[in-house]
Structure formats: C-alpha cells, structure tokens
Amino acid sequence: MSVADKEAAKKRFLEFIESKNLRMTSQRQAIIDTVFGTDEHFTAEQLLEWSKEKDQSVSRATVYRTLPLLVESGFVQEMDLGRENKYYDPNYAEHPHHNHLICQDCDKIVEFEDEKLEELEEAISNRLGFSLRTQKLQISASCDQLKKLGACKNKSC
Amino acid sequence: MSVADKEAAKKRFLEFIESKNLRMTSQRQAIIDTVFGTDEHFTAEQLLEWSKEKDQSVSRATVYRTLPLLVESGFVQEMDLGRENKYYDPNYAEHPHHNHLICQDCDKIVEFEDEKLEELEEAISNRLGFSLRTQKLQISASCDQLKKLGACKNKSC
DNA sequence: GTGGGTGCAAAGTGTTTGCAAGTGT
DNA sequence: ACACTTGCAAACACTTTGCACCCAC
C-alpha cells in the first residue's frame, strides 16, 4: 500500500475513533502511527515493542485494548498462520479481498488478489445456498527458485 | 465420510502408531475411537468429554498428548474458525482438499470441494513463483433461506 | 524388564480485567 | 467535571510438563 493510502486509512480510522466518542491519547497515537506506518504482519508483542520505540509509556494492556478497535473497524485483519501466535495484517483497509501465500522454505508471506478467484468463491457459495460475506484463503507453498537454484530470492535460506 | 472410510482411516492411523513404536493403551483407544467415530468438528475439551464417556480414565493431559499425533499423521486438521477456541476436523484423511463455509446466521459449517478452485489456486501459485503444497479456504457467508423465509434450514435460528 | 504412557497438579503462555490514578474533551 | 484511559499486577483460559507410578510389548 502506498504511503498516501496509509495516511488516508489512518485518517479514516481517526474518524472511526471520534465517531465512537473515544479519545486520542499519546499511547494510542503511538500504536496507531505504528500500525499505519508498516506493511508488515505483526504479533501483539511486536506491536508493543515498536510502539514503545515511539512512546515509552505504552503498556501491553493498552496494546491489547487497542487491537480490537483496529480489527473491529476493519483496518487490520487477524490472521492465524498456524504458527504459535496470532498475526495481524495492517494491509486490509485498501485490499479487503487479498489472500496470503506462505512460503514453507523462507517464511515469506506474499499477498495477492485475483478476480477469478472471487467470482468462483461467490459461485460456490451460491450453489451451496449462501451469500458470501468474507473469505480467507491461505496457500502454503514451496519456492520454485529454491528448488532450481538452491537459493530463494525472497530470503537467503 | 462413510463408516467404511472411517474404519479404513482408523486402521491406517493404527499402522502409523505402530510404525513409530508407540503403544496402544485403553485411553488412546477411547480417544481414537471417538475421533474416527464422528464427522463433527470438535475442540480439545469436547474430545476429552466424549472420550471419557467411553473410558472414564482418560485425562485432559492424554487428550492433549494424543491430538498432536492425529494432526502430525494427517488424519485430523487443526482449524481456526475465529471463534474462541481451536477446532479439530476429523474429516481430513479422505478429503485433504476440502474447504469450509461457515454460516454467520446459524454457525453451521459446510464442507465442500471444488476442482476448478484447486486448479485456480495452483495457477496462482505458479504465477507467483511457487508450488502449491496445501491450502485452506474459509468462506464466511449468510444463509439465503433465512433471509427469504425468516428461518434457516440448517438450524432453527 | 524396559521404555513408553498415564494422571495429577504445577507451571507456562498469551490475553483480559479490576482498580486507583491520570487525562482528553 | 466527567467519562474515558492508563499501567500495574492479579486473574484467566488453554495448553504443556515434571514426576512417580503403571502397563503394553
């Protein structure tokens, strides 16, 4: 997502905050700046760490209290990558339909969208008697480059 | 899955157990009978409860020690439905490519397979430079029947 | 007999919450 | 001023583990 998109998303999140009569504190500011300033997936613990770099006074409790706001408002998506912890995806606001491919070799996560896929998912839902609301697709794959060249372009592995 | 399929799967799991030089105890027997005797998704706690009905001496610890064997051997799949707990899917052995549609209205889970979907997923993976290994698709949907008739065929809701 | 298996209860781990003090509006 | 927020530490819920005894092979 571009920097401008991120800024726009942040602005809309602040409106969400305001519409719920919630307040902007320095701790929330640090957390929000962090979330809308990265493309990377993160854990709650990482978010705490990064936010603390901006404002030392951010506590674990506040991170855990702020995350649900971000998820509820739709700007961040909760992900279960099958690793030990839950991850959060900050790229959801502008790409609500994106999916994830996780490389088994290098742990790289590739985000992608595909219109045909969406159409097919909708057709399947209808065939089963439902209307699609949201979907999550995770593809676990191995890196072709690694197999051919013995190295992976995504990460030295 | 048919009863015969379930029995075949159970037999293959017992071979897996044997190949690892693990032993068959009455507690494991009860847990395994439970898993290969249901089509329903379950939590660790439910598995404990059901297994205890067959053998009172099954403990929580043994359930938690046996579940990884079932997952590792590929007969049960771990699922994160976005509800509070992890669920386990016992229908994975004969249908490793199946996906899930979860009805937001009635919590019903519909399992489905689709060849076109698999082909598309593989094509996408290749396009991105990877080879598909496994995939998980979860569709969250609402029930058409409920909207039209005010009731849901899957569950009175 | 031996090495894996068991139940129990204690310890872990990630997340939530009660409380008293602090602060944005 | 008032209601929302905070950090802290205790509480939680789920899962894992150390231990001494047990039992399948």
The number of domains of chain A: 2
Number of helices in the DSSP assignment of chain A: 6
Biggest interface found: A-B, 36 and 36 residues
- Percent range for β-strand residues of chain A: 15-25%
Distance between the termini of chain A: 27 Å
List the defining traits of the structure above.
6 helices; DNA-binding; two-stranded antiparallel sheet; 157 residues; alpha+beta; 5 strands; 18% strand; globular; homodimer; Dna Ligase, domain 1; Arc Repressor Mutant, subunit A
Structure description:
2 copies of one chain form a homodimer. Chain A is of the alpha+beta class and 157 residues long. Chain A has 2 domains: 87 residues, Arc Repressor Mutant, subunit A, CATH 1.10.10.10; 51 residues, Ferric-uptake regulator, C-terminal dimerisarion domain (Dna Ligase, domain 1, 2-Layer Sandwich). Chain A is built from 6 helices and 5 strands, in the order H-H-H-H-E-E-E-E-H-E-H. A 3-stranded mixed β-sheet of chain A has the order 4-3-5. A two-stranded antiparallel ribbon of chain A has the order 1-2. The two termini of chain A are 27 Å apart. The mean pLDDT of chain A is 90. At the A-B interface, helix 5, strand 5 and helix 6 of A face helix 5, strand 5 and helix 6 of B. The structure holds a DNA duplex (25 and 25 nucleotides).
